[in-house]
Amino acid sequence: MINYIFFDRGEVLTTIGTKNIIIKRIMDEFNLDRQIVLDTFDSHTQNLDRGVITEAEFWSNFLEDLGLDPKTPHNIDLCEIYRINTKINSSTFEIAEELRNKGYRMGIITNTILSIHEYNQIIGLYNGFNPVVASCDVKYMKPEIQIYQLALEKVKQDPKHCLFIDDKEKFLEPASSLGMKTIHYTSSSRLEKELRALKVL
């Protein structure tokens, strides 16, 4: 029996990811090749997602790796890009509300940077979800198994009584290995069908 349902945030509770938008802004700002930016960006955003470096440190390290002066000025604000481009996925929130009304408890497991995490708290995105296990708080990130273990410890639930929903299959595998049920999110309509198949809705 499912007691606790964990949601991913990006592209599940919110409509789009912002990585491609950020990459394009960096390419345009510094006149750089996409693949070079991608490779360098990915190698540094993990530390930002883990909350072990500040955004200022991220930009300094990132620019230095690109062969630029680490103090090069820029007009790229990661949280502002998120704020402008990301919308609430209202159809998924409607499903979450239906689940809440049925008595299910819900949490979030998300990889996110501190500024975006704090912004989501301010706008009330997390209301009704407890706990919110964010990589920037716990220093682990999906798909590292520790972040799922921490979520389970917080809710004091046997994994078999928990469900995890994420749009990335590689992030479902560790949850499944712990014994959690999982749903690969592709759309809210598909999610609803899968929840009904599990007799959760």
Helix/strand layout:
Blueprint: E1 4-7, H1 19-30, H2 34-49, H3 55-65, H4 78-85, H5 90-101, E2 105-110, H6 114-122, E3 132-134, H7 135-138, H8 145-155, E4 162-166, H9 169-177, E5 181-184, H10 188-197
Parallel strand pairs: 1-2, 1-4, 2-3, 4-5
C-alpha end-to-end distance = 12 Å
Q: Mean pLDDT, as a whole number?
A: 96
- The percent of residues in helical segments reads 40-55%
What would the principal axes of the Cα set say about the shape?
A: elongated
Counting copies of identical and different chains, the oligomeric state is single chain
How much beta, percentage-wise? 5-15%
- Which series of helices and strands comes N to C? EHHHHHEHEHHEHEH
Q: How many individual β-strands?
A: 5
Indicate the low-confidence ranges by residue numbers: none
Strand order of the largest sheet: 3-2-1-4-5
Summing up helix and strand content along with how strands pair, one would put the structural category as: alpha/beta
The largest sheet is: 5 strands, parallel
Count of individual helical segments: 10
* Rg from Cα: 18 Å
Explain this structure.
The chain has 201 residues and is an alpha/beta fold. Helix content is 51%, strand content 11%. The protein has helices spanning 19-30, 34-49, 55-65, 78-85, 90-101, 114-122, 135-138, 145-155, 169-177, 188-197; strands at 4-7, 105-110, 132-134, 162-166, 181-184. It has a 5-stranded parallel β-sheet, with helices on both faces. Helix 1 packs across helix 2 and helix 2 (34-49) packs antiparallel against helix 3. The longest helix is centred in the N-terminal third of the chain and has 16 residues, at 34-49. The protein starts with a strand and ends with a helix.
